[in-house]
Amino acid sequence: MDAMTICPRVLLDDEAILAVDKPAGLLVAPDRYDKNAPHLMAWVHREFGPTVFNVHRLDRDTSGAVLCAKTKAALDDLSLQFERGEVDKEYVALVRGRPPAHQGTIDRPIVVDLEHPGRMKAARRGKQAITVYEVVERFRGYSWLRLRPKTGRTHQLRVHLQYIGCPIVADPWYGDGRPLLLSEIKRGYKPPREGERPLLSRLALHAHRLTFRHPLRGDQIVVESPIPKEMDAALKQLRKWAA
Q: Which of 2, 14, 21, 59 is flagged as catalytic?
């Protein structure tokens, strides 16, 4: 992804807050190992000035709403809301398999996976991690979920979904990394000789909605990032062939 061609959608822009729709495949902030890797905040600073700071982060491969603060006071207030669990974070994800119940809570600690640098894993002891899930739609072999993390651990949703046997589609770390293919869901489909083009090849996880208190006015704010086109197109194919 070329840093000069990045042009994310602005979801909210006022005197204290900037909310941006981050595309999949883009870092939020500079990478500690690769300083030249494109990141969202380079675009934010170029367009809105160097005094705007991201309040939280998303994984590189996760798309969706990212909240930034324009003042130190707003940053402190919003950071405290995240720390206290007062921000309602809603994600959507397409996963393989079916959760054990239509809705439920995954309460499983997460720790660093020492055998795989950079990754996390579920464990009996570690940092508390809680995720509330709800099945929105069921398909043959897949489920479309609504997720609300109550804690903010690294890779929490990906680890928790792997833990219950429902890894996110195209997750190379906590799943098999395989994309969604039409040949997997359409009976009798014969791929073309030149090879099959995936319906969805990116990590099928999207930060859909943030609900929080405005740091200046105190009223409730809802920021929503639309479901990306490629995920919506994949859902339409699942509804057609794997309902």
A: 59
